[in-house]
Design brief:
The protein is α/β, with parallel strands linked by helices. The protein has one domain: Metal-dependent hydrolases (TIM Barrel, Alpha-Beta Barrel), CATH 3.20.20. About 40% of the residues lie in helices and about 15% in strands. It has an eight-stranded parallel beta sheet with strand order 1-2-3-4-5-6-7-8. Helix 3 runs parallel beside helix 4, helix 5 packs parallel to helix 6 and helix 9 packs across helix 10. The two termini are about 30 Å apart. The chain binds zinc ion (2 copies). The site of one zinc ion has 5 residues, from loops. The site of one zinc ion has 6 residues, from loops.
């Protein structure tokens, strides 16, 4: 079944830039061994709250990498929809793997493809798969790529925020260099009784405070491990742990030491490790609270 997709959805950093970084770092560190994936004490676990498991770079070894994630303490993964096809694929994966949950929605890159039937088809997908679908998104604004015209992005963002409310689902927000518009749309649409998350957070503390004021969570990606990820490091150090989620946004944005390479759910441990270091607490403490937050926002529980 054709559930795997191509990859034009770079959430925060361009493919070329990542490739460049990769080439540069690999030539510098050719003989250096990569730091192993940080381990957690028994009983402690992580959740990757945002990954694109249906993308085609996972096609050849999905089972292997899901096993690797579980072996490294990742007990659940949320596979995020970016258009109708990937929303269906995410739901299909959630049926196949009990530790995978799905979200549905149309990414700002793809909103130009929305037709008069799109929302009712997405709605049916949610209603037919309530157990699997835990959120609505990713939706939002992307002014870097502008794959879809700005006016259409703004309109469909509003429409999808109200659809999410109608379906009683928390929202997953993508905001790429569109902070001001994104925030004002969210403020106009507030309150969100089911809550939401600003995924792959790319703002500073000022924005973080406004996002927190909406009652939203802030999701920290692997960018926090980058040398130039200073704003994000500040945010990850300062926001309440009770408001934080962790994500890979795989296959994109791999944390150090895999920067520029394919990202995967097991690597969320590098992000947790970095946040623990920044905050001067244990990785288990980060894992425990962020997992609790994820289950709380997306309203599901883990068996056993
Ligand atoms: Zn995104
Ligand atoms: Zn994403």
């Amino acid at each position: 079944m054709a559930v795997l997709r191509t990859q034009k959805h770079f959430c925060t950093i361009s493919a070329l830039h990542e490739q460049f970084e990769s080439d540069r770092t690999s030539s510098l560190t050719m003989k250096k061994k990569k730091a192993p994936i940080p381990s957690l004490q028994a009983g402690s676990y992580l959740i990757d709250s945002h990954c694109h498991l249906d993308m085609n770079s996972y096609e050849d070894d999905l089972d292997t990498l899901l096993n690797r994630a579980q072996a490294h303490g990742v007990r659940s993964i949320i596979s995020i929809g970016i258009d109708e096809q990937s929303s269906i694929a995410a739901v299909t994966l959630a049926h196949k793997y009990p530790f995978v949950k799905a979200t549905v929605g149309i990414h700002p890159h793809d909103v130009e493809q929305i037709d008069e039937g799109s929302y009712s088809r997405l709605k049916k997908l949610v209603l037919d798969n309530r157990e699997q679908v835990v959120g609505y998104g990713e939706i939002g604004l992307d002014y870097v790529k502008n794959y879809s015209p700005k006016a259409i992005q703004l309109q469909s963002f509003e429409e999808q925020l109200s659809l999410a409310k109608e379906l009683s689902l928390p929202v997953i927000i993508h905001d790429r260099e569109a902070h001001e518009d994104c925030l004002s749309l969210l403020q106009n649409a507030a309150p969100f009784s089911q809550g939401g998350v600003m995924h792959c957070f790319s703002g500073d503390m000022k924005l973080a405070e406004k996002v927190l004021a909406l009652g939203f969570y802030i999701s920290i990606p692997g960018v926090v491990t980058f040398k130039n990820g200073l704003d994000l490091q500040e945010v990850a150090s300062a926001i309440p742990l009770e408001s934080m989620l962790l994500e890979t946004d795989g296959p994109f944005l791999s944390p150090v030491p895999y920067r520029g390479k394919r990202n995967e759910p097991a690597y969320v441990a590098y992000t947790a490790h970095k946040i623990a270091e920044l905050r001067g607490i244990s990785i288990e403490e980060v894992a425990k609270q962020t997992s609790k937050n994820t289950l709380n926002l997306f309203q599901y529980s883990l068996d056993n």
